[in-house]
User: Fold these one by one.
Assistant:
Number 1:
Amino acid sequence: MYGGGNIFENVPVDLESEDQEKLAAFEARINRGEKIEPMDWMPGLYRKQLIRMIEQHAHSEIIGALPEGTWITRAPGFKRKLSLMAKVQDEVGHAQLLYSAAETLGKPREAMINDLITGKSKYSNIFNYPAFTWADATIISWIVDAGAIVNQLANLKGSYGPYCRALDRICAEESFHLKYGHHAVIHLATGSPLQRKMVQEALNRWWPPMMHFFGPPDKASVHSEILMRWKVKMASNDENRQQFLDMYVPKIWELGLTVPDPNLNKNNESGQWEYTEPDWEEFKRVINGDGPCNAERLAVRRFAEERGAWMRKAILKKETEYVMPLA
Ligand code: BYC
């Protein structure tokens, strides 16, 4: 889709050393709602932040395929197997789109994959937890995809053209995932006592990581301010978390399931949800490599990388050259 080539390695990332006239013109374009395209002038920090965020998002998609992927062979019935297989395939496709979008900013895909498998890059906290039962797989498809849509529907109206176009397609596909996941959860929640127990236990397991999923509280978020000023992030972490609670807690209750937080309550005066703060120390441990499944997830990716090396070698001719990225 796009060319690669690490042509922007030594760009400045402090705003003072940028050309102030160009910076002002760039910010004016963003404020007018224009899209920034790969060959347009942009401050080094915008490039760096976008690479970081899009790359982490791409990694989250391929790592995110793993907990659900292990349930394809064990999904109950042929229809569920087919749907889950299609969903997992979509997630990997999302990673392809996102790696391509990140490549337009100058970081080659090989470098991104390398940073993933060596543990240098982050990816979403939530995929470092195990999917013990079929109900875990259904909760991921419904609740995790729901959270992803809340975040991505906001960001697709952002400023960087290739990322927004990738998100546009991703959100369309995610909305099918959400329907599939909701359907599978409804099936369990309206099923036998054992099925209800299974889905409730899965929800209990995924709720704390789901509260982490939207990122640290706004007051602790490092990157939000600049990302929101440059319209890369179109809603803050807390705004997305609130939006998710607003949309999905009623749906969870509708199914007769409970949320494992005795303090969860919508304050009618402020219109805000109140909840128990999730354990942010656990969040830090998980995103820094020390969650229940981090080692396993990276080992699977490393294995895939090693097993696919012969193929990449076979298709890459010595004389292949990277081209400058086009829009
Ligand atoms: N997990 O300053 P902050 C999917 C890190 S895939 C891990 O608030 P920011 C799906 C953050 O990176 C969807 N790390 O950061 C796939 C930063 O560390 P660094 C995944 C997290 O960027 C398959 C530090 O904490 N979605 O749904 O302003 C199957 C400080 O945070 C997390 C995306 O990637 C986290 N949850 O905001 C099913 C969306 N949160 O980099 C489903 C795109 C924070 O300084 N990304 N950190 O070392 C974003 O929207 C934003 O990057 C975030 C974080 C809201 C995630």
Note: Residues 1-7 have pLDDT under 50 and may be disordered.
Number 2:
Amino acid sequence: MRVDVLTLFPSAFEGGPLDVSIIKRAREDRLLALHVHDIREHATDRHRSVDDYPFGGGQGMVMRVDVLDTALTHVQAEEAEPGLVVFLTPQGEVLNDAIVRELATHPRLVLVSGRYEGVDQRFIDNRVDREISIGDYIVTGGELPAMVLIDAVARHIPGTLGDEASPEEESFADGLLEHPQYTRPAEYNGWTVPEILLSGHHANIEKWKRDQREERTRERRPDLLE
Ligand code: 4GY
């Protein structure tokens, strides 16, 4: 899969979470090709401005439709496949496991990370396919949301997780939270591990894990059981 990001802060994507561990490996193995583009390269005036005051007044600045439109056209033209254009915004559909899996089926995603108070609505109306939020809170710009989305989607590209893990065997694949986990030592500071996990009785252990998952989901996230 190819992912393009349009941002005013391309350096935010360097040496961060997309350059370590599983995602680093996916990129090295060419399962994920990440291309980060600086929106400011498409500014046209002598001040290289990418934002302006909002019509009708109000707080802060708005990202310009012309600069964004030109930047997106330029980036999309790098390949025959234009990609699905996603704008990260608290106004979007809240990201979940189903959306992550759907996005992972696309050969190319083009993510737009905004800054300032927002983006001219004409860009969203005419050039964006999907508006997605990573949750009901505000961050300073769309870069962290884009990285969250890229990480979550990349885990669903076949080969990314290697042989050990499959996203199908994880929480949310079947709509339940995970059971608690323990490792050695079996006792620390008088803190013990549930006896059943040390019993070696496979069938009982599997039943216990399932019960724990259901109880946790009921207590913590009853909305998932709807
Ligand atoms: N939450 N999910 C989020 C956000 C802030 C565009 C600059 C979120 O996706 N994005 O909080 N984004 C951005 C939005 C203008 C500020």
Note: Helices lie at 21-28, 65-76, 97-103, 121-127, 143-154, 202-220.
